[in-house]
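[Target chain]
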Amino acid sequence: MLSHSTSKPSRISAMRFAANDEGAQRVSERQTVHVRQSAIAGEGVGGQTAEARDKSTPTGGAGAATTTDGSKTSGGNTDAEGGVAQAHGSGNPSIVAKKASNGSKPAPGSPVNLQMKVASTAYMPPDLYLLWKFGCQLTKGRNVTSIAFNPKNKDILAVGYGAFEFDRQHSGLVCCWSIKKINYPERSFKTPSGVTAIAWSTRNENLLAVGTFSGVIMVFDARKGNKIPIIDTTHAAGRHYGPICKLEWVSREAGRSAGNMESLISLSMDGRVTEWFTLKGFDCTDLMVLKRPRKKPPNPIMKKKHTEPLIVRHAVGTALCFTDDEQNIYFIGTEDGQIHKCSCSYNEQYLETYNGHTASVYAIKCSPFIPDVFLSCSADWTIRLWHADREKSYLTMATHSSAVNDLAWSHQHGAVFACTNESFLEIWDLEHSTLDPVHVETVCVDTTMSVVLFTEESDTLMVGDSGGSVYVYAMKNFPSVGTSAEEATKLTSVLASCLSSQLPT
């Protein structure tokens, strides 16, 4: 069953704390080794030899006492290897030094003081820790095209399997995985065409919308486990005739969905953004029909003779993203590389157009901390950072020599995002560097990384590949998480820094 259980803690949270404890244990072990090496070299922890230390150590009282074999005792703790007494359960070198030197402060130039300084300022690079992966014989060899967490039950993960290439088409598959059972999905639904997009309903958490390569949209009830969709657009008027690139459930008061009702928004490669209403069948209306920009006449003299062609060529939509704070404004990425800002209230024109990419835009993601700030990735090998109020991008980041398939913002860190690139998963921290990622993970050399998604409540992310697997990683050694206002300030500082670097000197 897909019902949420509160009796067992989430596996993601448990593994997250386990990963943090492992990192802390490694730091503690390295600090202890530094102090022990100094003692083995013939120097005491205070820079003295063992003989001088024996003379200066009192024979009674609350201080450390020297035994006949050269080891010291302090409160019942002994270390015969190097004569180092440690505090209970502590790997802090300052505590070790105070115990070993009988409470005296180490000299400024002593080995202990230097070791303490190095250990306290040691930089632990960001890293990823593989927790597990979702996959079975049913999904083997299928390309992962979309991932979505259930909005109410965060332990349930829906994964869509299909392809956007025409010559790779076969039947599609949707699997509902549970983190309590990673070897086989709780639910699975097969579709006649490859799955290209999925989205959970925000009002009814059991409804899962599925978009396919053929343009058909289906809605399954995951609670019942019925293999047949409860509704689909196969014979609906106004159905799509191109692959579905994106699906999103939105709740808004504008337009026909008055009364704050939920509707389903779809973007297809046929150039249409369509709103679907599920109260009585699949009734729909087009929010936007994408058109290519008009080309200027090649010669001003020929301007009067220039006429519009009889057939207006539609633009191909490839990416869609609604702003989180106002589900009336959305961004569309196109095959031409342009990004358009649109409103559900105006279907005749764009509110703004952003130029920068030179190839298809594969994904657009708004920041969870500042909705007007968004990222875009493209087949032109770049990622761009934008603000809705500025036509020009703030920052352009180049990746490996290949298309950037997908990206996702972290819900914990305001300036951190991840992107997929061939066989690599890149983690960027814009507060640390805008030139290179802070970590590059080679997930699998035999497959292409296609989708990435962060969890909302922890430093964990999911990565899907072309082989049918979804890898679950925990982030380690990343900056501490601040409040929402603090994380938003970090991103604002990045924008200000990028803007200042673009101003003429």
